[in-house]
Amino acid sequence: MAAITISQLTKVFANGVRALRDVDLTIADGEFFALLGPSGCGKTTLLRTIAGLEAPNAGRIVIGERDVTRMPPGPRKVAMVFQDYALYPHMDVTDNIAYPLKIQRVGRAARRQRALETGSHLGLAGMMDRRPAQLSGGQQQRVALARAVASHPQVFLFDEPLSNLDARLRMEARTFLKRLHADLRITTVYVTHDQSEALALADRMAVMDGGVIRQVGSPVEVFQRPANLFVASFIGSTPMNLLDARVDGGLVRVGPDAASIPESARGLVQEGEPVVLGVRPEYAELHPQRVAESIAARVVITEHLGTAFLVDLETAAGPVQVVVSEESPPDTGDDVFVLTNPQRSLLYRRDTGELIGPASSLAGLATAAAR
Amino acid sequence: MPPGVPGGAASAAGLSRRWAVGFLTPAMLLIGVFLAFPAIWTIYLGLTDFRLLGPQALHTKFVGLGNYQQALTGGDFLHSLYITVVYVLLSAVIGQCVFGFTLAWVFRQWKGPLRRVMESLIIVAWIVPGSVVAFLWLAYLQGNIGPLTETGTLNTILGGIGLNWWLQLPMLSIVIFNIWRGTAFSMLLFGAAIQAIPPSYIETARVAGASGWQLIRDVVIPRSRGHILTNLLLISLWTFNDFTPFLLTGGGPGNQTQFLPVYVYQQAFQQGALGYGAALSTLVLLINLLIALAYMRILKERR
What we know:
Structural class of chain A: alpha+beta
CATH architecture of chain B: Orthogonal Bundle
Largest sheet of chain A: 6 strands, mixed
Oligomer: heterodimer
CATH topology of the largest domain in chain A: Rossmann fold
CATH class of the largest domain in chain A: Alpha Beta
Number of domains of chain B: 1
CATH superfamily of chain B: MetI-like
């Protein structure tokens, strides 16, 4: 059990790639923390640097009370689960789970006992003397988890542990991981490029890009109030609409049309300021007639999503996507009007790309209520 | 019979048996003429007293297992067998294998030109013809001859010890020579084996706290088992049948480096006892077969 404090961490690879730039991050004891970002953003490098598999060029890593920056991986007391599980094909399940204990010089009987207990806890009781090749992908994944659990680490480090599973198993394994974490309460750092995993599993998460952390917060905060345009465009199963706009009176002008100013940005912008209006496709409405401040659009195509339709629109300010309920899909070629929800839409400064208004949604609601 | 395939049942590749036999015949003929026939002829010769010169060259007699009896009771053959086994164990199984593995493991972490230069130098030792390296090593380990001392390169470097390596330490010299000569193969093979180990296997062990030795014992060697055994099989056979020592010491001094191939050559072509030499060759063939079978048996065992 330990918190992780990372300060000013920089990693430059031999080929000159700066994978981490002055990263500061604190992960609380017992927290499930997700590192999310596109490939090459530095999330795996950060995880491997915490594990001790990469040496940072500058900065400090503290796990619990110990500065582990220059420590080899072993004494850091971390356990890592790799994407390919890294189970040893020449060992059976028991020996695989017990391998870290063997290195820790736990006696043979004791470590077999502990492997069996951990294995049973993770639903592997009947297959302790099988080889990894005789197990399904989901079972292999649980053996890898059991090996991490049995070593009683201070920290779990997961490197995309679910991405080798098929979609169905991945959902099961996700629930399984969440339950396991609720049981053990061991500090967990979880790297993924799949935002639905991060949003579903994490207590808090960091979104990374180009070796820099772009936002840290709870999944709700990150989803509802992305702190900058990068996070805004990265998070969300359908990407957020980002429209160039300009502040004009109590409105934001989008091309020839206008939309109401998002509530959280009111009073924080200057007249005429260039901004970017952010509207999630789920938080906009389509109307057949112009209602209040809305944006004229023409339907280009509609996609069926199951319980809803994703409507692709063309506006004077560029393409816009809106999700509508399954009852009322418009037809291709229809002229419609997009009405944004000022409580849910966001405003970004066009020059810096930063969110205007408070970072946390709760704080945002509080200011809105006070007004 | 499927249409368009004349004669016999079609194989998975769509070839009839007749076609398959047609393709195989040239290769089988070559193997028969240059491999199978000489081997059978050697076995036959080994049962006679055929000689290069003299009355037996004209009036060869069938002597049954006499040549084998002579070989197995005479002492010279058993002495040669013994020193050959020692030579194989020291220079190939221990020397080349262990040294090659060590080099492959060390070079694994090296990047850039230094590694390429080192690897190239080691590989050069392996690909240069035996007669050339034999000459180089003769010059390198040359000892004092007559009044001129310190003639060899190594003695010049060491200065003043005046050792005649080939005369005073012939076995050691040849073992070191063969390690130098053959390590490249083991290094390349083990390099490929280590490359093929997924990095996450090694990193899992490192995160668990495994030392370098534990990592090699628990992950690298079990994962390279096939490579190790194949390598041992090949280098054991190559070293067992290696004739280069003859170029270096001619089997001497005395019979201290009279390895089996050298002994066979001396008996058959220097002494002219072709029948006896053929019997010795058959024995060498049998020993090779035993070595190969032993390794392949271990290789087949499931682990």
